[in-house]
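Design request, tokens follow.
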């Protein structure tokens, strides 16, 4: 017999067979002062470029793709950066053309964009 129902672990909700989003894109929009030694994605137009991708996705009528702002992802020196799931693919971008190419090729077409891809060695991550 249970003596304390609060000690019971919470029950996970039932899982659907399909994820809500087919692709989930996270843009780092973290901003630091210009003089900060690590720099920041937000200081390099990442928020504007994220908003550009969102508008383009809406124009294209993409419904099962989610594009979100995110905080610092600890790759500041490479920024501005985004990561795309479910693959966990990292990209560096600088222009609207870069972002449009990533959306059309990787997100919609499933074809990575090697010229913008970031290959990260986890052992080099900043502590
Ligand atoms: S500020 Fe963008 S990864 Fe740190």
């Amino acid at each position: 017999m249970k003596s304390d129902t609060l000690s019971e672990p919470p029950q996970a909700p039932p899982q659907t067979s399909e994820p809500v989003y087919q692709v989930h894109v996270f843009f780092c929009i973290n901003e630091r002062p210009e003089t900060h030694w690590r720099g920041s994605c937000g200081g390099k137009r990442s928020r504007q470029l994220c908003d550009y991708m969102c508008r383009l996705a809406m124009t294209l009528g993409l419904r099962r793709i989610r594009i979100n702002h995110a905080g610092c992802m600890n790759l500041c020196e490479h920024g501005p950066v985004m990561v795309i799931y479910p693959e966990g693919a990292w990209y560096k971008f600088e222009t609207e053309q870069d972002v449009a190419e990533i959306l059309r090729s990787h997100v919609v077409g499933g074809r990575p964009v090697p010229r913008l891809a970031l290959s990260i060695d986890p052992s080099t991550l900043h502590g």
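Comment from the thread starter after seeing the answer: thanks! Residues 46-59 form the longest helix (14 residues).
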